[in-house]
Amino acid sequence: MLGVTRKSAFWKVGMIALCLTAGCSNPFSPPNIGPRGGAPIKPLTSPENVLDDFVYAYEQRDFDVYETLLDPDFVFVYFDPDRVEGIETVVVPRDGPSGDLERTRRLLRVFDEIRIPVFRVTEVSVDATGPRVLQKRRVAFQLTLRDLTGDFGYDSFEASGDAMFWFAPSASGGLWHIVRWEDLSNQ
What we know:
With about 190 residues, the chain is α+β, with helices and mostly antiparallel strands. The protein is about 30% helix and about 35% strand. A six-stranded mixed sheet has the order 2-1-6-5-4-3. Strand 1 (about 70-80) and strand 2 (about 90-95) form a beta hairpin.
């Protein structure tokens, strides 16, 4: 009986060693898949890294990563051309039942495929008019959303245009976060 136990223990150790040398993967620790198929999530040490992680969060439908990109004072701003009295500026706060986080959670849940084939910084500037000095990045983008499973009527949408992102470093640690995201597409 004792010999069988040792034999099975040696067999298990041998299989583990074989897996480690043969490249077996651990399903409880999957590799990081980053933006554009391979780069890991970048540290939030610059506005450019935050933008790369933003694309990753959308394309991989990773809400947790998206949430870490936003400053506690974050707002999303867009221009609604369908209002009765003309274009209206709409400001969406970060939190709350109709806040950006909840809207993004639903978006990532509804669409099976989200692609941002174009996401290019076209302008870099600084905004020193408020209490914090903010870095600004204007971005040209193209966005494709698809419901491939039909759970939501096989809807698909495409959008393109420009967006402006404002960034600020956190008070502790110097990590950068998005303070304001303004969609300039309908302006």
